[in-house]
Specification:
With 533 residues, the protein is mostly beta strands. It folds into 3 domains: 221 residues, Sandwich (Immunoglobulin-like); 86 residues, Carboxypeptidase-like, regulatory domain (Immunoglobulin-like), CATH 2.60.40; 154 residues, YVTN repeat-like/Quinoprotein amine dehydrogenase (Methylamine Dehydrogenase, Chain H, 7 Propeller), CATH 2.130.10. The chain is 6% helix and 45% strand. The longest helix is centred in the middle third of the chain and has 7 residues.
Length: 533
């Protein structure tokens, strides 16, 4: 749903406000406001309200010196109006307030405000110089916004009436914790587009998983709060600063709960309402001890450091027995097929028992295997053998691989994976430790492992157990589509996340995310993927 807006042209450009905490991503305080007019000018905002930098690109990489803009936002609330206020100020060398051609989200500068109120689904308000859009079920009339442009920068300002977003009252306003993120589309005159936000990820990730992808904002008067300061002693400091989260919950009931990152030294500090809490830390499915502490109004509570040992990669489970069955298949003598030049075509008329082939593989004995919707078939040069048990019938066989023991593995779209040892079949599914029954890629490595690519992560089978790696272990592991082993035995993974290519490398001990610049600069990466040449 779109609403036309008034474009306010050059007036004063200001940011104001003291910077937020050096590593304030994950948590912020919205202080009381009064007398704010939504006109795109920010001169009526309190000068001492913290400003939070919008400096994180889609994959948590900070903006470099070559980028042409910087931005920050401030947030506050008015309890009597039941309204949330957001102000965004941008310094931009090249801006496009209104495109010359068709209007679209990626052809003009814009701002996105993503909100999730307690007990409701998240919504997204998309602000442009000349329009307002909303998605996620929120009401357009709940937002009042204005934009203000001038050479060298622009501003967005918005008021969001909390009771009107979903048409239901929010009680109470003060003391509420909501989820929030602010993001910017920066379009330059040369057509280049950048996306920066307060938190990593893009809007689809944040709307799908606001608990971890959006920040927590507390609506409260700073004078009513206390302060807590602490430190997490990450065994791996760099990994902890990148992946680790501190979780703080009220006790005995978890009415108040939030998770936030630490700074590079493992430190964290924040203001909290008075009460009793517990704190824990962790990442990759592991968590520390949970010491208790109390917060008092106007006082600072300093906690003893919490230690966190580096957790293992992936989640390992013993492999289940699978479902075993035998079947000799149906043998059909193959005809000669039709020849055209050097090509011979075999069709069902020549004995091919299946059609609409999805995959093909040649095993160590020279047999050809074909996978389709109707099952699988083996061809030894003389005859076809059709294997169309219920595990395969009308289930696309999307991949084959032969492991170091000579077993043949079939990956399918619905039933998991099946191993064939020449006599019997064993099918493994999520019940046996596989991450997902949709296996869209399969690979055997030189160490005897078999890897399975699924929408729920990457699973490795070592003959005894399944170990699943997810996005908690490597970037983009929720959508991996390619896998390759290089001449040094490293395993490379390629995937997509909302159209952005991601590459990760596993050396048997650690995962390393490879960004685009590294791929261009490091010729050895490409040489390894080409077999060491």
């Amino acid at each position: 749903m779109m609403q036309r807006l008034l474009l306010v042209v050059p007036l004063c450009f200001l940011l104001g406000g003291r910077p937020g905490h050096a590593d304030s991503r994950g948590y912020a305080l919205a202080a009381p406001l009064a007398g704010i007019t939504i006109d795109g000018q920010l001169d009526d905002w309190p000068a001492d309200l913290p400003a939070h930098a919008l400096s994180v690109t889609r994959w948590a990489q900070p903006l470099g010196a070559a980028d042409d803009y910087s931005a920050a936002f401030r947030v506050g609330f008015n309890a009597a109006e039941k309204a949330l206020y957001v102000a965004v100020a941008v310094e931009d060398d090249s801006n496009v307030p209104v495109p010359e051609g068709p209007v679209g989200y990626d052809v003009q500068d814009g701002c996105e405000v993503m909100l999730k109120l307690p007990g409701f689904e998240p919504v997204q308000y998309s602000l442009r110089a000349d329009s307002l859009g909303v998605s996620g079920g929120g009401a357009t009339e709940a937002a009042r916004v204005a934009a203000h442009w001038q050479p060298g920068g622009y501003q967005f300002e918005g008021r969001f009436d909390l009771d009107r977003i979903h048409g239901q009252a929010v009680q109470p306003v003060e003391g509420t914790i909501l989820k929030l993120d602010v993001a910017l589309y920066d379009v330059d005159r040369d057509g280049s587009v950048s996306y920066v936000a307060w938190m990593p990820g893009d809007f689809s990730q944040k709307l799908a998983d606001p608990a971890t992808q959006m920040s927590s904002v507390l609506l409260a008067d700073p004078a009513s709060l206390g302060r807590v300061e602490g430190r997490i002693d990450w065994e791996d400091a760099a990994e902890g600063a990148r992946l680790g989260r501190v979780r703080i919950e009220s006790v005995p009931t978890a009415d108040f709960s939030l998770a936030l990152p630490t700074d590079s030294a493992g430190a964290y500090a924040l203001e909290l309402p008075p009460g009793s809490y517990q704190v824990s830390a962790g990442y990759r499915r592991a968590a520390s001890d949970t010491p208790l502490f109390a917060v008092q109004t106007g006082a600072t509570t300093r906690l003893e450091p919490v230690s966190f040992a580096r957790p293992p990669w992936g989640q390992k489970v013993a492999a289940g027995p699978g479902k075993r069955f035998r079947g000799a298949g149906q043998r059909v003598r193959a005809d000669a097929g039709s020849r055209r030049g050097s090509w011979i075509t075999l069709t069902p008329a020549d004995g091919l028992p299946i059609s609409n082939i999805h995959s093909i593989h040649q095993d160590g004995q020279g047999n050809l295997w074909f996978g389709s919707w109707a099952g699988i078939a083996r061809y030894d040069g003389q005859e076809f053998v059709a294997l169309t048990t219920y595990q395969f019938t009308f289930d696309p066989t999307v991949g084959f691989v032969e492991d170091s023991a000579g077993n043949l593995w079939f990956s399918t779209s619905w039933f998991g994976v099946t191993r064939y040892d020449g006599e019997s079949f064993v099918t493994f599914s999520t019940e046996d430790g596989l991450a997902d029954n949709y296996v869209r890629g399969i690979r055997a490595d030189g160490a005897g492992n078999v890897w399975f690519l699924t929408p729920s992560g990457v699973t490795r089978y070592d003959g005894q157990s399944f170990t699943t790696y997810t996005e908690e272990d490597a970037r983009g592991f929720g959508s991996v589509w390619a896998i390759e082993e290089d001449s040094a035995g490293n395993i490379w993974f390629g995937g997509l996340n909302d159209g952005t290519a991601v590459v990760s490398r596993y050396d048997g001990e650690d995962f390393v995310d490879i960004n685009k610049a590294q791929m261009k600069a490091d010729l050895s990466v490409r040489r390894r993927l080409r077999g060491g040449r």
